[in-house]
From TrEMBL:
The gene is LOC104748931. It is found in: Membrane. Signal peptide: none annotated. It comes from Camelina sativa. This is WAT1-related protein At4g15540-like. Keywords: Membrane, Transmembrane, Transmembrane helix. It is a multi-pass membrane protein. InterPro entries: EmrE-like, WAT1-related. The chain crosses the membrane at residues 43-67, 99-116, 128-147, 159-177, 197-217, 229-251, 263-282, 294-314, 320-338. It comes from the Eukaryota.
Length: 369
């Protein structure tokens, strides 16, 4: 009985989070692969982005209604408009309007990142997208230093690791983008298309740079209003409205809005249901259960997943430059993550030492008195 209890605890503590994180990476890469297959058949990436946000908004609305949290923020944002306005209510309304503006800005930033990413995949491949995504910790560190959210102590081993890892990560990304090299793995190509590797790589780099800014702004919003499902719902709702406006301007041909059975319909359903909504929920759960370092460790695995999926579903070839650059980039990625983990460990030890010293100090004072 005791062995079963220990086995069950191990299963919940280690096996389930591991399987969940692998599933999230497969889901993300699968969405990129389906999108690439759909665009190769003439599907507009503007329409894809819009329908993905529509699907995610509907799923998150359903989740919000089930958990009863949707109406709370909606009431806070809208109901004061219909009440007698005094100075206190006006002050509170300004604060809530500021929160809504920040969510709108988050949606604008996320939409721009999504469009840049989709266009980058259209020019290149999901494999390149998975490789460039490992730049996110390096970009986040650079932005945190730029906005003075992180202190740079050059004598600290943690800071040195993050600086070295950032430089190595960017070097690996440049190798992937600028050097393709000979083909190592050639698969049967199902479709023919012209790719612009450098243009795609630059767009994907812009995507994950904006995504790093998005993470910083999202963290700030969550400190103000710590309701994940509600914030993500309003984020998707605003992004859906903005993308709908863009689609009406760009895609004037109504035939491009049609979802025909095939890769186009599959990519929209898969992205809206699994990637944008449920994938975010699982990712948040992983952060809560295991922490950000554990979740980040699985990011380089997306490169191998992308290579396999691209070879099977798209017939993409694997180039030597992608392999060399991915190895360099992954090394830099893990160096940054190690530096962050080292910094957190030092901070925890310092906090625990301070908490242990305080009671001892008080006891000594009482003895002396």
């Amino acid at each position: 009985m005791r062995e079963e209890t220990v086995s069950w605890k191990y299963f919940k503590r280690d096996v389930v989070p591991f399987a969940a994180m692998v599933a999230v990476e497969c889901t993300t890469v699968g969405s990129s692969t389906l999108f690439k297959a759909a665009t190769l058949r003439g599907f507009s990436f503007y329409v894809f982005v819009l329908y993905s946000y529509v699907g995610a908004t509907l799923v998150l609305l359903l989740l919000s209604l089930i958990f009863g949290r949707y109406f709370g923020l909606l009431d806070q944002l809208l109901l004061p408009c219909f009440k007698n306005m005094n100075l206190h209510i006006l002050h509170m309304q300004v604060k809530k309007s500021s929160l809504f503006f920040k969510i709108f800005l988050l949606a604008l930033l996320g939409l721009t990142s999504r469009v840049a990413g989709c266009k980058g995949i259209e020019y290149s491949s999901p494999t390149l997208s998975s490789a460039i995504s490992n730049l996110t910790p390096a970009f986040t560190f650079m932005l945190a230093v730029f906005f003075r959210m992180e202190q740079v102590m050059l004598r600290s081993s943690a800071t040195q690791a993050k600086i070295i890892g950032t430089i190595v990560s960017i070097s690996g990304a440049l190798v992937i983008v600028l050097y393709k090299g000979p083909k190592l793995l050639v698969a049967a190509s199902f479709t023919s298309f012209e790719s612009s590797w450098i243009t795609g790589g630059l767009l994907l780099g812009l995507q994950f740079l904006l995504l790093s800014v998005w993470f910083i702004l999202q963290t700030h919003i969550m400190e103000i209003y710590p309701e994940e499902i509600v914030v993500v719902f309003f984020y998707n709702l605003c992004a859906m409205l903005i993308s709908a406006t863009i689609c009406l301007i760009v895609e004037k041909d109504l035939s491009s809005w049609q979802l025909k059975p095939g890769f186009a319909l599959a990519s929209v359903i898969y992205s809206g249901l699994f990637d944008t909504s449920l994938g975010s929920v699982i990712h948040t759960w992983g952060l809560h259960v295991k922490g950000p370092v554990y979740v980040s460790l699985f990011k380089p695995f997306s490169i191998a997943i992308a290579v396999a999926m691209a070879a099977i579903f798209l017939g993409d070839a694997l180039h030597l430059g992608s392999v060399i650059g991915s190895v360099i980039l992954s090394f830099g990625f893990y160096t940054v993550i190690w530096g962050k983990a080292r910094e957190d460990a030092i901070k925890r030890v310092s906090d625990s030492e301070q908490s242990l010293l305080l009671p001892t100090h008080n006891t000594d004072d009482e003895t002396l008195s």
